[in-house]
Amino acid sequence: MTPGQRLHFHQTESGPLMDELFEWLNKKMDNKEVEPNSVLGKAIQYMLNHWRELTLFLRVENTPLDNNICERAL
Known about the structure:
Elements: H1 3-30, H2 39-49, H3 51-54, H4 68-73
Helix pairs in contact: 1-2
């Protein structure tokens, strides 16, 4: 696939799932279904705080889906 085709694929296939996940994460926190200081609460808060960066692959061509290059460098 070309970078543009891949971006379109991510937007059509992953975009709706990511939208649902975002709503679910917010619902859990807004409805106080998760203790904010629990491991799950902290993980949800991390995702919400970094949502823009975590979903960059839905907006920018050639964005990697992982950071393996950085992990290997460490």
